[in-house]
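Dear colleagues,

As part of the handover before I leave the project, I'm documenting each prediction I ran so the next person doesn't have to rerun anything. This entry is a single chain, and its sequence is reproduced below.
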Amino acid sequence: MPTQQSTEERQRANRRLAGFLRHPGYEVIPLQGTEESVVEHVPKDVALTVTASPGKGTWATVELAERLAGHGFGVAPHLSARLIRDRLELGEILQRLREAGIRNAFVVAGDIDEPAGEFEDATGLLEVMSEIGHDLDEVGITGYPESHPKISDEMTIQAMYEKAPYATYIISQICFDPEVTSDWARRVWSRGVKLPIRVGMPGYVNRQKLVRISAGIGLGESARFLHRQRNWLVKLLLPGGYSPDRLIEGLKPGFADPNPNIQGLHIYTFNELEQTEAWRRKMLQRAELSS
């Protein structure tokens, strides 16, 4: 028989989860048909981010973001530091976002070994964005609940400190251990980085769609994609596969924290939008009934 306090905590966690599910973020990949799929399946109150990749280049990201904004979506393009040549190109990108009414961007380092120009990392790009000026109301940066495969923990912590003054929110990389994610979020706060965190997690996805997505982003880039997601792929291939429901249930106790910095969910859709949206609605209904 649960205590009254534990019942209240569960209800508080479900209320917060319901709020997160009403207004989540969906990440989409700029491929053929992405725009049409978003328009058909995604409600306008779901925020979107558009990835940037070496194979497609920065401008494919910007152009899809412009079109989605034209449909009335709130959208944040990824600004990948290593894909942007110089200040001139950065200025052109920011001008295009300004003209499209886009007021949010997510700044990442990028997944190529050699930068296209002067920007080595996200911090350098953020610094120049601040110097030349922009009209963005929101700027996101990446957080790493688990160790980065190519960057030491000390460097990711230092990078967080360096990027935080230029940012308004953090999106965490995928982590399948909810306790690790919750503990990391508390440690970020205790270290003085007081930015809201949107927990990154995969939505609904199937193996066949993953193969099509990885093929669509090019051979070399596909290898990088699969390498980055290798822990998730192991989960997907194991008996029972990956379940977003189980990950949500594991994260939920942390949502009861009365002073939380976890403020939302960021769903890596892998363009599986119809199924992800159906899953979101089901989970929202369940959370509302339990709150």
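Residues 1-5, 217-223 have pLDDT under 50 and may be disordered. The domain at 4-290 is CATH 3.20.20.220 (TIM Barrel).

All the best with the project,
I.
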